[in-house]
């Protein structure tokens, strides 16, 4: 076998092994970050996130990496206006859920497994509390309703009353 | 136009005939977030959300509005 032929054979075998490795999908290695309350249960949390973080110049802007949709910010339906319809829609809430859980899915899953303990492992909490540099400053204060709402979600049981109270405040 | 900054300091500004106004940073180094209201002849209209980081009103308020912009602001509906 010529040197060129051996080289081609080696590359072919290597490529085949690489393809086999990619095809070996280990279900145990898959990550499901959507372990926290979602759908209707998440709606009050979405409304708080949009209220505190989703204004048009902040995370309601297409220029942010983490983009939120809802009342007072960008709308998912191109026919809507920021203030109409007058509530964050279920579709927007679902999109916001996907947005938030996909920022750091592994860490989010760990926080959820620990029933919300040490939420500042999550970047969006650190940024919101301004313990990590954040252009928008502090939008969440530990102990206040908005922060309690989001951390209740991270603990696995959304406190809808505290979420509603947070949005009602100016 | 009444602006209230993150520290609670509030200042009024008068627009020109086109409805525009500005303040120099050297005159007021305000802190975000800003609350905003417009007033004219006893009528007042408050913005329902805060301004988080952008000092230009026109970044968000444009033309007739769309899914990512609010329309221009009038004290009374036209």
Summarize the structure.
Chain A is mostly helical and 170 residues long. Chain A has helices at 3-23, 43-53, 90-101, 105-113, 123-128, 145-154, 160-168.
Specify which chain pair forms the largest interface. Answer: A-B, 26 and 21 residues
The percent range for helix content of chain A is 40-55%
The portion of residues forming beta strands of chain B comes to 15-25%
Strand content of chain A: under 5%
Mean pLDDT over the residues of chain B: 93
Pick out the low-confidence regions of chain B: none
Q: What is the N-to-C succession of helices and strands of chain A?
A: HHHHHHH
Radius of gyration of chain A: 22 Å
Please identify the oligomeric state: heterodimer
Largest sheet of chain A: none
Helix content of chain B: under 10%
What is the number of helical segments of chain B per DSSP (H or I, 4+ residues)?
0
Tell the overall outline of chain A.
elongated
- In one word, what is the shape of chain B? globular
Q: Write down the secondary-structure element order of chain B.
A: EEEE
> What is the alpha-carbon Rg of chain B in Å?
13 Å
- What is the rounded distance between the termini of chain B? 18 Å
Secondary structure layout plus pairing:
The complex is a heterodimer of chains A (170) and B (78).
Chain A: H1 3-23, H2 43-53, H3 90-101, H4 105-113, H5 123-128, H6 145-154, H7 160-168
Chain B: E1 2-4, E2 10-12, E3 35-40, E4 43-46
Antiparallel strand pairs in B: 1-2, 1-3, 3-4
Any descriptors?
heterodimer, A: 170 residues, mainly alpha, 7 helices, 46% helix, elongated, B: 78 residues, mainly beta, 4 strands
């Amino acid at each position: 076998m010529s040197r060129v032929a051996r080289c081609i054979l080696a590359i072919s075998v290597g490529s085949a092994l690489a393809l086999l490795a990619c095809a070996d999908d280990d279900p145990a290695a898959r990550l499901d970050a959507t372990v926290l309350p979602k759908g209707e249960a998440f709606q009050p949390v979405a409304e708080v996130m949009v209220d505190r973080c989703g204004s048009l110049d902040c995370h309601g802007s297409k220029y942010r990496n983490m983009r939120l949709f809802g009342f007072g910010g960008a709308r998912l339906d191109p026919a809507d206006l920021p203030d109409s319809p007058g509530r964050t829609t279920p579709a927007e809430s679902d999109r916001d859920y996907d947005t938030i859980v996909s920022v750091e899915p592994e860490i989010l899953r760990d926080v959820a497994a620990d029933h919300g303990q040490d939420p500042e492992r999550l970047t969006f909490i650190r940024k919101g509390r301004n313990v990590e540099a954040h252009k928008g400053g502090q939008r969440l204060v530990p102990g206040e309703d908005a922060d309690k709402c989001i951390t209740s979600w991270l603990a696995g049981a959304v406190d809808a009353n505290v979420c509603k109270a947070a949005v009602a405040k100016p | 136009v009444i602006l209230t900054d993150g520290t609670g300091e509030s200042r009024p500004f008068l627009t020109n005939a086109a409805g525009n106004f500005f303040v120099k940073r050297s005159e007021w180094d305000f802190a975000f977030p800003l609350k905003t209201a417009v007033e004219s002849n006893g009528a007042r209209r408050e913005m329902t959300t805060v301004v988080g980081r952008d000092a230009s009103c026109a970044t968000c308020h444009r033309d007739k509005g769309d899914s990512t912009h609010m329309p221009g602001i009038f004290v009374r509906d036209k």
